[in-house]
Write a structure and sequence with these properties.
mainly alpha, 5 helices, 61% helix, FAD assembly factor SdhE, SdhE_FAD_assembly_factor
């Protein structure tokens, strides 16, 4: 069983990092955190961190399902978090 990410400071840093230059991305992440912030596991936080390393345009393509994760991002944790993001 995966542990819940209980460190509020780590979640706050992640939420701050999720603020994006593109308003569309910002809105998706804002809704995502409203719904899922308190149930994120360590694996979820790791997957989100990896997604947030992408450029705004690459991230938007994934969020809007114009592209699917490839290479290092094509792992089950990233795919699961991406599915949550796509469904907010």
């Amino acid at each position: 069983m995966e542990s819940h990410q209980s460190d509020p400071h780590r979640r706050a840093r992640l939420r701050w990092r999720a603020r994006r230059g593109l308003l569309e991305n910002d809105l998706i992440f804002e809704r995502f955190f409203e719904r899922h912030e308190h149930e994120l596991s360590d694996a979820d936080v790791g997957a989100l961190t990896r997604l947030l390393e992408l450029s705004d345009n690459d991230l938007m393509d994934l969020l809007l399902a114009r592209k699917e994760p490839e290479g290092d991002l094509a792992d089950p944790d990233v795919k699961r978090v991406l599915e949550l993001l796509r469904n907010v």
